Amino acid sequence: MQQRQGDVRPQFRRDARNADAAGIVERVEQGGSQPKPLPPGNRVAPMDIIRILLAIVLPPLGVFLQVGLGLQFWLNILLTLLGYIPGIIHALWVILRT
Fold first, then answer.
1. Is 12 helix (H, G, I), strand (E, B) or coil?
2. Number of domains in the chain
C-alpha cells in the first residue's frame, strides 16, 4: 500500500501468520513494527482478581494470600483495626505492587 506524502492515515497490512478465515487485519505503525505484547509483570492473573475481591471484603486475608505471615500482614491487621478503609487501601497496594 503506497502512502502519499503528507497523508497521515494509518497503514494496514494482512499478516499471513496471524490471519484466520475471518481475515484479521493488523495495524502497522509508521516504523513498520507490529504491536508488542505486555511484559508478564503487567498482566493480571485470575488469582490476583480473587485476592483483590478478598482484600475488599477482608483486607488481611488478601494480604495473607499474597505475602504470608510477614510484616505486611500484621501491618494490615493493625490498619484494618484502626479503620476499614486504610486496611483496604494497604491490601490493594500490597497485592497490586507485586
1. strand
2. 2
